[in-house]
């Protein structure tokens, strides 16, 4: 872990300190973990109104080339896979429109946002693969990125842009003016709520343009700043994965470079045309075999704690006979459900809803029940 002095800082670092945020390292960045109101209040405020997140530690990437399959202005969740079929990273990819100064708005590149601290592995992999095609990769390290999430998000943002947001369904994106700044806005997020992710270029002023937009949004009584602690509990309730690293004797988070999309319950990201073409993508030998032969050795699923304390990542799971059958990869307290919830990997067959599992927490055996995700209803905007 880098020393505090070596941690990178987003353009909003001073704003977080001024708001009294508790800071901590994440992906090589010094990030707000929580604000004085605490994780619980921030979480529930986001579910009721709108939470504002600084996600400038994530990196925008532009890929230019022909044969983009996504419709113009639309996005989808996808994964980068290695030759062994493991997931290098997960991200939303958008077929982006041209800038607002150009009359022709047809998408001319792919835009994606990769996880914090992943550029050293994602970019070399992408460049190596794209070298086989007439395509190029460009990064946008100077952009600030805000996530405005919650049922009030659309009303809040609509007051700052001339674009009719009712015509932007979930997973659509386009360039637009927001509070006088030219931004790229996607209707997406990491909370299960309706919301927007706003990429803000530096601008031509003496300070980064994202600082002005941050301040403008926080002038609203229905918007509050939210740190990574509540972002994690919100995404867990929504059943969304957190990328991490897996070690020989433990697990840390839900996806890593040993886990396939099939094991991670993300097989739906593999398009039909990809499934029909052996060797058409990195790791296809393993991934297509797991789909065809049902040969995965573990499966991601959700669980609720029947009674007692939350079960944290790295905790071994056993069946009712005492045999070890899996491991917890994400776990915590659900502010909405008021009970422990989590995700785990278990042997195939143990991932069926209603299956009972056992975990030891602080010397006590607790019962868990496998359940479908999301734990809390997702409220994405699907259109007028």
From TrEMBL:
GO molecular function: aminomethyltransferase activity; methyltransferase activity; transaminase activity
InterPro entries in alphabetical order: GcvT, GcvT/YgfZ/DmdA, GcvT/YgfZ_C, GcvT_C, GCVT_N, TrmE/GcvT-like
Protein name (record): Aminomethyltransferase
Enzyme Commission number, as recorded: 2.1.2.10
Record organism: Emiliania huxleyi (Coccolithophore)
Catalytic activity: N(6)-[(R)-S(8)-aminomethyldihydrolipoyl]-L-lysyl-[protein] + (6S)-5,6,7,8-tetrahydrofolate = N(6)-[(R)-dihydrolipoyl]-L-lysyl-[protein] + (6R)-5,10-methylene-5,6,7,8-tetrahydrofolate + NH4(+)
Gene that encodes it: GDCT1
One Pfam assignment: GCV_T
Principal location listed in the UniProt entry: mitochondrion
Record function comment: The glycine cleavage system catalyzes the degradation of glycine.
Aminomethyltransferase C-terminal domain ranges (all copies): 298-376
Cellular component terms per the entry's GO annotation: glycine cleavage complex; mitochondrion
Family as reported in the entry's similarity comment: Belongs to the GcvT family.
């Amino acid at each position: 872990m880098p020393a505090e002095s070596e941690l990178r800082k987003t353009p909003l670092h001073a704003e977080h300190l001024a708001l009294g945020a508790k800071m901590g390292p994440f992906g090589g960045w010094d990030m707000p973990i929580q604000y004085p109101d605490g994780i619980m209040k921030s979480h529930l405020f986001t579910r009721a109104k709108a939470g504002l997140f600084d996600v400038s530690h994530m990196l925008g990437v532009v890929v230019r080339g022909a044969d983009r399959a996504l419709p113009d202005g639309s996005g989808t969740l996808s994964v980068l896979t290695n030759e062994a079929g493991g997931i290098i990273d997960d991200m939303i990819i958008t077929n982006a429109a041209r800038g607002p100064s150009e009359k022709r708005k047809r998408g001319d590149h792919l835009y994606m946002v990769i996880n914090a601290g992943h550029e050293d592995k994602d970019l070399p992999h992408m460049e190596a693969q794209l070298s086989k095609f007439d395509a190029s990769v460009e990064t946008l390290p100077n952009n600030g990125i805000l996530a405005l999430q919650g049922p009030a998000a659309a009303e809040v943002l609509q007051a700052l842009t001339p674009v009719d947001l009712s015509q932007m369904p979930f997973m659509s994106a386009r360039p637009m003016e927001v509070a006088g700044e030219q931004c790229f806005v996607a209707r997406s997020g990491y909370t299960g709520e309706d919301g927007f992710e706003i990429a803000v270029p530096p601008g031509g002023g003496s300070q980064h343009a994202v600082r002005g937009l941050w301040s403008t949004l926080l002038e609203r009584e229905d918007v509050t700043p939210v740190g990574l602690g509540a972002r994690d509990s919100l995404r867990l309730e929504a059943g969304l994965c957190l990328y991490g690293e897996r070690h020989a004797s433990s697990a840390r988070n839900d996806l890593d470079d040993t886990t396939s999309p099939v094991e991670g319950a993300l097989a739906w990201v593999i398009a039909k045309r990809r499934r029909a073409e052996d060797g058409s993508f990195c790791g296809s030998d393993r991934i297509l075999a797991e789909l065809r032969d049902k040969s995965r050795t573990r499966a991601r699923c959700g669980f609720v704690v029947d009674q007692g304390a939350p079960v944290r990542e790295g905790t071994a799971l056993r069946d009712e006979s005492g045999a070890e059958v899996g491991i917890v990869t994400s776990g915590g307290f659900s502010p909405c459900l008021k009970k422990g919830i989590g995700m785990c990997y278990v042997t195939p067959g143990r991932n069926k809803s209603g299956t009972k599992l056992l975990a030891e927490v602080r010397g006590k055996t607790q019962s868990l029940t496998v359940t479908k995700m999301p734990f809390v209803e997702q409220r994405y905007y699907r259109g007028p």
